[in-house]
Amino acid sequence: MNRTAPIGIFDSGIGGLTVARALYERLPGESTIYFGDTARVPYGPKSPETVRRYSLEILHWLLGQGVKLVVVACNTSTAHALGALREQSPVPVIGVIEPGARAAVAATRGGPVGVIGTAGTIASQAYPRAIHALAPALRVEQAACPLFVPLVEEGWFDHPAAELIARDYLRPLATAAVDVLVLGCTHYPLLKPLLGRVMGQEVRLIDSAAETAQAVAETLAAAQLEAPAGHVVFHRFVVSDDEPRFRQVGSRFIGEKLTAAEVVALG
Ligand code: DGL
Questions:
Q1: Is 1 within a domain?
Q2: Spacing, Cα 179 to ligand 1 middle (Å)
Q3: Is residue 145 flagged as an active site residue?
Q4: Which of 27, 101, 176, 237 is the most exposed place for a label (fewest CB within 10 A)?
């Protein structure tokens, strides 16, 4: 495997750019290809079979581009498809759920641990499984927050309507007195100030992006796949539809790196 090959990152759309940003910060010497499935977003309400099929199509497209490792930035894809992706991939595949679970277990002072995500991620029980693999006795309380994704896409990070919805969604977790809250969806880190206000300052918010970037760094090092110093770094962005909107909304997630995106239709 060529050490200068890019890392592939994919998401159902724009939200995975929060993970891409953490990767740029942790691994500035690595090139990346980001694929956002903007034609078929959202994955959150779709069946596990459909999410698996879409995810495998993206994996094979990224492998065709010669990537040396694949990051599944989407929580819903990780929940439904990580096993299938690993089975079919000749290169390492890293999801966001195990790193998020690790960070939650490290941060809790005894629980319960709160987890929020899309309907699909919550129904899959992937977070409780990953947390219990590390800490079997820890209590986990979950809540699906399906309206958060469209709110973030609209840029309503701090809108009164967003706060009203957040208070409703998070009430059971606040009642359960969770001491950490895992933001189990690509979009939720953008709601951090709002969620912090709703849950109270003593509740730690866990964003798996930085933890995932650390897992990527460790995997590259163990496989001796780190890019050599001094090579030319590039970042490519590819979407399956609506490139102008991806650039416009995506710039809010990632800043100046997102000046152009290509369109590739899958399926
Ligand atoms: N990327 C998805 C996730 O992290 C959120 C958006 C969607 O529903 O596709 O679960």
A1: no
A2: 24
A3: no
A4: 176
Higher pLDDT, 93 or 242: 93
The answer, yes or no, to whether residue 158 has pLDDT greater than 90, is: no
Residues near 259 by Cβ (< 8 Å), separated by ≥ 6?
247
What is the pLDDT of the chain when averaged over all its residues? Answer: 94
Shared domain for 116 and 82, answered yes or no, is no
Q: What is the pLDDT of residue 154?
A: 83
- Pocket lining for ligand 1, CB < 6 angstroms: 11-13, 15, 41-44, 74-76, 118, 121, 149, 185-187
Question: For the chain, how many structural domains are there in total?
Answer: 2
Both 225 and 243 in one domain: the answer is yes
Range of the structural domain that residue 131 is part of: 98-208
By the 10 Å C-beta count (0-12 exposed, 13-18 middle, 19+ buried), 207 is classed as buried
Q: Does residue 72 carry a pLDDT above 90?
A: yes
Are 40 and 15 within one domain? yes
Q: How far is CA 75 from the centre of its chain?
A: 5
Are residue 102 and residue 202 in the same domain, yes or no? yes
Residue 185 designated active-site: yes
- Confidence at residue 267, expressed as pLDDT on a 0 to 100 scale: 77
What pLDDT does residue 248 have? Answer: 85
Nearest-CA neighbor of 95 among 116, 76, 67, 123? 76
189 and 111 within one domain: yes
